[in-house]
């Protein structure tokens, strides 16, 4: 996962445990949420710090959505 500044310079990068096929969702506070082929949802702070991962029961191909209360919604291949 890469964050690139408007001038094209790298801001940060995070190595996930497997490839990422989903598009990220960005919360109002700048937190990035993304699904990974390792079956996890990743929460990455605006500065590139991994805040948490949540292991689902299957690969996460879908893009997360963030509700108005901050709840993260994501589909998983486990049904």
Quote the distance from N terminus to C terminus.
Answer: 25 Å
Q: What amount of the residues lies in strands?
A: 35-45%
Average pLDDT taken over every residue = 95
Total strands: the figure is 8
Number of helices: 0
Q: What is the overall silhouette? A: globular
The profile of the biggest β sheet is: 4 strands, antiparallel
Structural class of the secondary structure composition? mainly beta
Helix fraction by DSSP (H/I, runs of at least 4): under 10%
| Order of secondary-structure elements | EEEEEEEE
Low-confidence stretches: none
The spatial strand order of the largest sheet comes to 3-4-5-6
Rg on CA atoms, Å: 12 Å
In quaternary terms, these chains amount to single chain
